[in-house]
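Weekly puzzle thread! Below is a chain. First person to post its structure in token form gets bragging rights.
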Amino acid sequence: MKRAIRLMALGIAIAVNGAAMMAVNASIVGGAERELASRQLERVVIVAKRQGLPASQTVASQNCPTPS
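Winning reply:
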């Protein structure tokens, strides 16, 4: 009888821990999905003549990809 009660308690403890781990996993996955969904590509467009730019900005404009 004592052994059956202990086994039942162990089974309940395992079930509760499993449910808690599933809840934590779901919240982590949900947070990661929200983070990925909130990322938006930002594009900065600078309108200026290249000859009028200082040297540091000319290098930056040359390294930036052109919008497709």
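Puzzle host: Confirmed. Bonus trivia for everyone else. The helical segments are 2-38, 55-63.
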